[in-house]
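User: Is it possible to get a 3D structure for a protein together with its bound compound? The compound here is P1T. I've pasted both below.
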Amino acid sequence: MGFSTDAIHAGQEPDLKTGAVITPIYQTSTYAQEELGKHKGYEYARTQNLTRESLEKNIAALEKGKYGIAFSSGLAATNALMSLVKSGDHIIISNNVYGGTYRLYELVMKDFGLDYSWVDTSNLKNIENAIKPNTKIVYVETPTNPMLTITDLKGVSEICKKNNFISIVDNTFMSPYFQNPLEMGCDIVLHSSTKYINGHSDVVSGIVVTKSDKIHDRLRYIQNAAGAIPGPFDCWLILRATKTLAVRMERHEKNANQLAEYFSKNDKAKKVYYPGLKLHPQHELAKKQMRGFGGMISVDFGDIETAKKVVNDVKIFTLAESLGGVESLVCHPASMTHASVPKADRDKMGLTESLVRFSVGIEDVEDLIEDIDNILG
Ligand code: P1T
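Assistant: Yes, that's possible. Here is the predicted structure of the complex:
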């Protein structure tokens, strides 16, 4: 099936009892059992919920996987992934990831005996050099938040297969519409479905997709055992949103391309990070492994005053955390999304105080450009 056909239909059979075309919101915490030991496959809603199951099947189809396991936030999913390893194990991870991922792993999970090497995974040699006898996972975000650095996913999956590691890819920035890491041999895809998948800035949620029975069994067990599940109404909202994922992503990208071109011609934008620009150092790799370049742009304005002016004076863009919604947002990563990352580490990757991140929405692009141009001139 094509992407949009799956987006609209996968996991969504008409309701057996009424024929309702849209999957109902099963807003219940428990289910009546017919007699002791006899039930309809639904016992308790932390364990089974049909609205959630529909969502999991839907996203699994879009990511070309076999199983989806939904969580109450992207970070709840990120947390659950560490149940695949044990105290004493080692994880190689991209040095640039969402700041909350860094905070969870480096400032929380490390206390439970997990060892992390934060390396620039855009150079595969750095991954190979970081391998230790106790390495179990290679975790990459590509493109990264907010530097838009790309990691070669086929390369990562080959290293992992050779060494029997689990490869995990945070695919939040691309959405399944533009990139399918499982098709490149990776083991697990992670999404903050708060972002493009839901796309309307009204739900916080996360999802993990895999083809592996073994990985699925463990994560399904943890979903129930730890209980960080999304509510049925949130699942229903996301199911509604994925129906338009393809058209939204097309428009996000079209707008972002034009805005990135605008920035690249404006002297006040000292450095423009967007994989769709030919000047992006990994533009060719991006073209190879992605079907589009997405809706995220970061710009270094060279001085904090200009950066501040941009985030404070925009009228259509809104200064806010998060990304991937239909409305355009602007954010200052150094003080907002990546404040947990030590300044020295931020500086090393170019995440400066003068960097501004743009989540380009699906408004009329002329209005978005004018909004910025009124400030930069
Ligand atoms: O916010 P939550 O749904 O828990 O997802 C965490 C997360 C995971 N991965 C990536 C790539 C992310 O960007 C995020 C969340 N990011 C933001 C809130 C942000 O503004 O960047």
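Residues 73-75, 98, 100-101, 141, 145, 170, 172, 192, 194, 204, 206, 321-323, 331, 337 surround P1T (CB under 6 Å). The longest helix spans residues 245-264.
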